[in-house]
């Protein structure tokens, strides 16, 4: 079948998931503390996570094209469709941006001018961590990503009607891909620093942008695997074989190990230096969020490492589907742990219990546990939603993920599933890893 038909039953399931997410967000808002900390952290968490996954879809596509790889060409439309979510992510981030200006939320300690005025560290960082740069990252940079991805997709579709392998559309795609790689590489760090790392405004890590981006990348690969299994099971992509699945599995395995390397390296270097402003980040998470801190390593490293180490496991649908589902949830938990503790400290300071701010509270022993205790006095949720995801948090994630899949499948259904007239089309169709494996997985 040349075109994917987005059936009404699939739309209904995803729309149901979106409605569930909206309901969970609303319930979180109306049952939250006075500052709505859980609501805003959940919103930022899911919007930033899936926007990053969309970015990595285009980044992966660009990297393979520039490297003159051919094995992925047969299903590259899946990545093209996933990349189109970036414009939705931009729209989703606008309320967070406005909240920085108008005080709708207390996600960021640096957004409070009165706190910055009495905080020497924040004053030194204010030339970069400020509303203007946050807006540039959230709107300007994300729009640039989407613009390039949209232009790339338009050229890919136009190439379907040009039978010549020397057509200009392919060369223009290579040009866009070559430009996108450094642009995305450098600006993704800017976005990650603004969206995520600046939540813990006193803390910094030179490895954090790599660490957070690899989390996006592994998740993008896992969603790709699950979408291909879904499409293959419904008669689409008949020429996808176990070799394609195996190659995707190798990338999931390799970058799960790389993620772990960054996890350990970031932790080890900060622990070894023993600088108070840096170690407090990990001390808080290790001592007060041990279940998530150590569970993060088990889910995102040990499980894929031992399951995908064997070659034959990477060719099995059941094993790959299981690992990918767990890893999507695992890296979502990773972002949960990046966001929740710092935002909770900031909210605690905003309630009037801080000394000179959230990080000062942590430095003086007023950690997340005490913050929750004080928040409880103001009627906020206690452990669920901060120390571990509650049902409302999981429901919100289902809603955002359903929106991501709905946008992806909508774009996938608008054009032929297989890109025509691509110079690497034949190589991709006949992609096999010796010894040859079955055409059907």
Gross geometry: globular
Q: How do the helices and strands follow one another from N- to C-terminus?
A: HHHHHHHHHHHHHHHHH
Structural class: mainly alpha
**Tally of strands:** 0
Strand portion, in percent? Answer: under 5%
Radius of gyration: 22 Å
Total DSSP helices? 17
User: What is the rounded distance between the termini?
Assistant: 18 Å
Mean pLDDT: 90
Provide the domain count: 1
What is the helix fraction of residues, given as a range? Answer: over 70%
Sequence stretches where pLDDT stays below 50 over 5 or more residues: 353-381
Largest sheet: none
Question: Short summary of the structure?
Answer:
The protein is an all-alpha fold. The chain has 17 helices and no strands.
Can you describe this structure?
The chain has 441 residues and is mainly alpha-helical. The protein has one domain (8-429). Helix content is 72%, strand content 0%. It has helices at 8-31, 37-66, 76-83, 86-102, 113-117, 120-125, 131-159, 168-195, 208-233, 242-273, 276-288, 290-308, 317-353, 358-363, 368-377, 391-412, 425-429. Helix 13 crosses helix 15. It starts with 7 loop residues before the first helix and ends in a 12-residue tail after the last helix. Mean pLDDT is 90; it is low at 353-381.
